[in-house]
Amino acid sequence: MMLNHDLKKEFQVERIAFFSDAVFAIAITLLIIEIKVPEVHGERFSSAEIVQGLFALIPKFIGFIVSFFVIALYWVNHHQIFKYVVHYSPKLVWTNLFLLFSIVMMPFSSAFYSDYWLSYSAVPLGFYVVNICLTGFMNTRLWYVVSNPANKLSEGLTNRAFVSYCKARSMIAPFVFLLSFLVSTFSMRIAYWCPGLIFVFMMFLKRYYRKKHPELFIK
């Protein structure tokens, strides 16, 4: 009887993880669907016109690349969290659903931001920043729910430094996008390139934790 109960719990946890993987996969696929093949009108057109059409898509491609790696970052985080989950609860399910809600919003907010980045309006960037911040907050919240011993949802999450590192890493993207929003108040063009700082901050965060907690990075 106990074995059947444990198997049922394991099955339910796997269902949550598989459903989440599907949502991440769909969201990351929808990003590229937003980019259409450039239209060149007329029966005869030159290579220069095609290249010009491709250049017009550069903002969309940049938005796609940034959002792809942001979603990928949170998928890796999500995968890392569920390695330790052995039980489930309504709190876990709903926290996970709110995270997935913010993920499926990403293709729209990314397209909105990419289409209007040269409009010098703070609204598209602000919408995208809110989406990223919600994602980061819900990912951090998921870490808190899973790692809290009182919730009895995980096994093996005894290293608090590791949990702290994962929480900090999940907040890097929101921090960088908030920074880009502040930069946009005096230069939209500079703000557009700020997301590249995500990888810089991740590198420094890893270096900091490697120095203070080298045991976290021993394979």
UniProtKB/TrEMBL annotation:
GO terms for cellular component: membrane. It is found in: Membrane. Its main location: membrane. It comes from the Bacteria. Keywords: Ion channel, Ion transport, Membrane, Potassium, Potassium channel, Potassium transport, Transmembrane, Transmembrane helix, Transport. It catalyses: K(+)(in) = K(+)(out). One of its GO terms (molecular function) is potassium channel activity. It is a multi-pass membrane protein. InterPro entries: TMEM175-like (IPR010617). The keyword Signal does not apply. The chain crosses the membrane at residues 16-33, 53-76, 125-146, 166-184. The keyword Transport applies. PANTHER family: ENDOSOMAL/LYSOSOMAL POTASSIUM CHANNEL TMEM175, ENDOSOMAL_LYSOSOMAL PROTON CHANNEL TMEM175. Belongs to the TMEM175 family. This is DUF1211 domain-containing protein. It comes from Mucilaginibacter gilvus.
